[in-house]
Amino acid sequence: MQTRENELKFSIKTEAADKLRSDCVIVGVFEHRKLSAAGQTLDKASSEHLSRILRSGDMNGQTGSTLLLHAVPGLAASRVLLVGLGKEEEFSEKRYRDAIATSISAISNSGIEQAALTLLEIKVADRNAQWNSTQAAIVISDSLYQFDRMKSKPAKAARLKQVSFCVSKHLESEVRTGLKHGEAIAHGMTFAKDLGNLPSNVCTPDYLAGQARQLARKFGFKCKVMDRAACEKLGMGSFLSVGKGSDKPPAFIELRHDGGKRGDKPVVLVGKAITFDAGGISLKPAADMDEMNYDMSGGGSVLGTFRAIGELGLKLNVIGLVPACENMPDASANKPGDIVKAMSGMTIEILNTDAEGRLILCDALTYAERFKPAAVVDIATLTGACVIALGHHPSALYANDDKLARSLEKAADNSWDRVWRMPLWDEYHEQLKSNLADVANIGGRAGGSITAACFLAKFTESYPWAHLDIAGTAYRGGREKKGSTGRPVPLLTQFLLDRQA
Ligand code: BES
Ligand code: MN
Ligand code: ZN
Predict the structure, then answer these.
(1) Is the CB of 326 within 6 Å of ligand 1?
(2) What residues pair up with 440 in beta bridges, in sequence order?
(3) Is 284 marked active-site?
(4) Three-state SS across 365-379?
(5) Among 295, 328, 383, 439, which is best to mutate for testing ligand 1, by the most ligand atoms less than 8 A from CB?
(6) pLDDT score at 171
(7) Measured in angstroms, how far is the CA atom of residue 460 from the centroid of ligand 1?
(8) What are the two backbone dihedrals, phi and then psi, of residue 287, each rounded to the nearest 5 degrees?
(9) Helices vs strands, H then E, count in the chain
(10) Closest to 178 (Cα-Cα) out of 220, 125, 139, 218
(11) pLDDT tens per residue across span 198-240
(12) CA of 393 to the centre of ligand 1 (A)
């Protein structure tokens, strides 16, 4: 199993801040020079050592600022990290998350192995200690993530191995629940990130199937992997057409977690897993094509969410479907103008072989009907147009059911894995008309993310359905910070946690 959950350990401590035995106690400072409650405790115990330092002007509490202090007298901890929180009246969810990330990156490459975080006690408007705790675990794990499996020598790992959440006794149980959720989400994100970051010569459809089987073994899920012949029997002509140009055989992965009551309708998660998207015969330009190993991120997020589901033992029935294949140019590949027949019976004119995500998802969405689902959510790096429309902050949310859309919006806000709802109006469906087949696979340049979603909507009329276009949020491109984000594992896990409650 490719998770490294043993690397970072969280715990909860309820001693007063000055009594915390630790390599470093992390304390917030508001602008201008106002110590948080834990900071004031440390200040008293150290005979106002901290106030004196603040008065010296080295740190006045601005966001993003930190100051590491050694040998502060009167404390059990050997160091104190002051972290700026900005103006108290402007403190927000974002500032809380940023302050934690800043603290962790300030100490992750020092000699500090164990840190005590007092920021959880700081009040974030409309949030409780459970939320603070879940977010802290997610942000810390995210800040410490490194991917070095493809380096011949592993990168120097962060020394930081243990973080304690310091809170007063009466918050302990809330914080414990929050930490449990946060750790499960963090492990799921790490799992999804690793899959995303692996290059396409390693992370093939077969490899994904193997990872799903291992997850199933570890957590007791049922797992079925259908090969080309099995998919052919089901009539998945659209899915199978995409993998034809590749020498890597396709795999249709099905995971099942029967945590709910027998007979309770399941939630079905469907994730696009194109392990490399060269575009096919409608070949992509060379620039940034290296990023197209991330085109399996939807499928990766389904597997990552199952990682979290397993750890949490969710009392829900959940099914994960991951159609996996590679989109390559070859003599047997789809050609522009080819017409294929989907599992639903609909015929599709493939005007652009690079619009392949919808071709694999439509058959998975038809296959989902057999589970009589309570809801289906598909997740896909579906369109470049989505990145143009919304940038890299929210995923695009589409839904044929307002209640489902609202619950996803709520889970997105709570988990800080945000979405923005987009329309599926009839007017857009016009763009997908074909005079030769039932539907075309592209709708022109205008509203490209929307017409892609409209294409999927034609296959999801029999159940409540939502679609997340994660092309802008699943990974960061470029040379410096290239890498998977593990999104939308937080959103999906929170959505399932909320349904269980
Ligand atoms: N995987 C891509 C979408 C994508 C592009 C994700 C950039 C992340 C970054 C998808 O299969 C694709 O190629 N879509 C085409 C659709 C077009 C041909 C209608 C696109 O967005 O250009
Ligand atoms: Mn494509
Ligand atoms: Zn693609």
Answers:
(1) no
(2) 349
(3) yes
(4) HHHHHHHCCCEEEEE
(5) 383
(6) 98
(7) 21
(8) -60, 125
(9) 15, 21
(10) 139
(11) 999 999 999 999 999 999 999 999 999 999 999 999 999 999 9
(12) 18
- Confirm or reject: Cβ of 448 under 6 Å from ligand 1: yes
Distance CA 148, CA 322 (A): 26
Distance CA 148, CA 151 (A): 5
Contact 10, 163 (CB under 8 A): yes
The reply to whether 358 belongs to the active site is: yes
Residues whose CB falls within 8 Å of the CB of residue 473, separated by 6 or more in sequence, listed in order: 392, 393, 394, 395, 485, 487, 488
Closest CA to 208 of 322, 359, 294: 322
What class does CATH assign to 190-500? Answer: alpha beta
Partnered with residue 251 across adjacent β-strands are: 324
- Confirm or reject: Cβ of 447 under 6 Å from ligand 1: no
Pairing of β 162-166 and β 114-117 = parallel
- From 362, 357, 365, 371, select the one nearest 341 (Cα to Cα): 362
pLDDT at 426: 97
Q: Which of 443, 460, 467 is nearest to 382 (CA)?
A: 467
Tokens of 294: 């991330």
Whole-number Å distance between alpha carbons of 408 and 401: 11
Domain 4-146 superfamily per CATH: Leucine Aminopeptidase, subunit E, domain 1 (3.40.220.10)
Catalytic residue among 358, 418, 458, 487: 358
The H-or-E segment that residue 135 falls in is helix 129-144
pLDDT in tens, 357-406: 999 999 999 999 999 999 999 999 999 999 999 999 999 999 999 999 99
Domain boundaries, the chain: 4-146, 190-500
Name, in order, each residue with C-beta under 8 angstroms of 463's C-beta and a sequence gap of 6 or more: 368, 369, 372, 373, 374, 375, 376
Buried b (16+ CB within 10 A) or exposed e, 410-427: ebbebbbbbbebbebeee
Cα(302)–Cα(491) distance, integer angstroms = 11
Q: Which residues pair with 349 in a beta bridge?
A: 339, 440
* C-alpha–C-alpha distance, residues 191 and 302, integer Å: 10
- Rounded distance, CA 378 to CA 365, Å? 8
Residues counted in the chain: 501
Contact, 333 vs 353, CB < 8 A?
yes
Q: Tell me, what's the pLDDT at 351? A: 98
Going from the Cα of 398 to the center of ligand 2, the distance in angstroms, rounded, reads 20
Question: Any bridge partners for residue 223, and if so which?
Answer: 255
> How confident is the model over 411-460, as pLDDT tens digits?
999 999 999 999 999 999 999 999 999 999 999 999 999 999 999 999 99
